[in-house]
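Sample log: Dienelactone hydrolase family protein.
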Amino acid sequence: MTKTLSQNALFFLGLALAMGLFQSLLYWIVGADLVTQSSFANYFLAANLTALLGTAVLLRFYYIQQFRAAFLTGLFAFFTALLRVMLLYCILLPLTRALQGYYPYVLVLDLGASLVAASSLVLSSAGKNGWLKAAGVSSFLVASCALVLLIVSMQVYSGRPTPTLEKWQLGLSFMASLHPLFFVGYLWQPPAAPSQPWDSNLSSWQTILIDAARLMGIAAFLFLGVSLLGEGIRASYPQPEAIKQARIFEARTFTNRRGDKLSYRLLRPESYDSTQRYPLLVSLHGGAGYGTDNIRQLASWEIQRLTEPRNRKKYPAFILAPQCSRGTSWGGIPHLVPRDTIVFDLLNTLEREFSIDSNRLYVAGHSLGGYGTWSFIGTRPGVFAAALPFSGAGDPSLANNMVDIAIWAFHGETDRNVPVEGCRTVIKAIQQAGGHPRYTEFAGVGHYLNPSLDATPGLLDWLFAQRRVIQPE
């Protein structure tokens, strides 16, 4: 059966509508954690390419109907949208971090092109059609709001994500996902006059190509959608490991002199004796630990290993696990509000409350926590005796501050979330400054290091053998 141009346009626009609404629904349920799921980048690409394919067929209709202004401006907006989608896909994977700095400029270009294309649907001859005029008005409003939101984000919040901005982004994303409805309405109606050119049949090879694209679109929606749904639901709840640890960790909240609050968990040594001094490990969670439940942060590798019964007896120590919310960090990441100061305020308070050996303070963390670990020892020299940064990047300009700290850094060679160069660079800088950090790079391993860390002999023995180097005054 030979399908007409309008039938294919309706199919792709309808599929784009379904995929967009599905993504918006998941974002509403899961929140910003959705974009960190392994299936999201591919689903994002499939959904946007489907929408762009529908747009390409729609542009053909503009050409047939001789809506020249709408066709030309829409064509330009099509290519800017394609550029934005491919760039964001590279960042989401990420294929390269070098492209990230270009995204705001490409986004502004795309929003500008969208505003021009939307205006042409309203002001040109295409605006005589009610559906197209409504599509233009809706697109103009969404693009205008997105541009204002971008300016506010950059000028007021310095690009940092905040709960308020995320709510606006969710609303705009939902509104944008509804745009295909207007074009479906336009294509569904009959031509204004019988003599008016409207539709055309496709050749056999065009039909084969578009049928293949149809199958690929449906397959992507089903397989990637199901995968993303499962990952999203799992991400909306604490990991089982964290729930298990919450039974033995004490839930606490710290308030500093400025009134800032920090939720944290604390585990005391078994058979704690206030006449003895114990080491303390600060465990800085990664992105999966974001939240306000004071539970998610307990799934880290160091917590899982140190709470094993044999290790609790072998390495009696305090374990401190603070939790920060999305839009913040432990330091070392641009555009995220650092929560390092309040952690150090908490450390000082705990040292007064418990019998803690100030010469045996340790810090460890993965990913977001790995950045924080590097930042803690780089910005607060003389506090920690040892550090275990996992899959994190450090600031080589702070190398001199890290010379006297025992460091054992770990990274996966094929890490696409935090490229390995960020760790190699700071290790080399510390060595050049006179330090002797240990560095283990796992060949063929990505961002997730737990099995490789488990197979590393002597890691915990090394950690608890370290004592702070006190410089003579």
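Observation: The longest helix spans residues 204-235.
Observation: The longest strand covers residues 356-366.
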